[in-house]
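Quick one, T. Sequence first:
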Amino acid sequence: MAKLDLLEVGAKAPSFETIDQDGNPVKLDDFKGKKVVLYFYPKDDTPGCTKEACAFRDNLPKFDKLNIEVLGVSVDNQKKHKKFADKYELSFKLLVDEEKIIVQKYKVWGLKKMMGREYMGTNRVTYIIDENGKIMKVYPKVKPEKHAEEILQDINA
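Structure tokens:
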């Protein structure tokens, strides 16, 4: 995998406007005053992405208690997001980015390799955005099943 030129800690988080799995409008400004976990994942209903989403789902009460919003982003469409969210009872927002605007603003769209094949896709990267809209932490290498707990540990540290 080519090294991504990710956003720096302290940088202003790029604004965005899109819809979630239910078709509701969502923009980053909606969450001013609270921390946001903005996690990017390759594809709905694939093994790694399902493990990651379910780990966030299972830890959601802890994020809620800390006033932290969890937002998942992939380039899948609203219908796929809705099916994925319903199938695994995901109660946080999955953001639609079919036009690849958000993945490009956050520099997570890039060259990937799988089984010797190279292709463009969404890299599994998470940004923590603080209450003032600044990048607080970047996770460039994510282990799907442990990631939600890792973030909670870091935030509570």
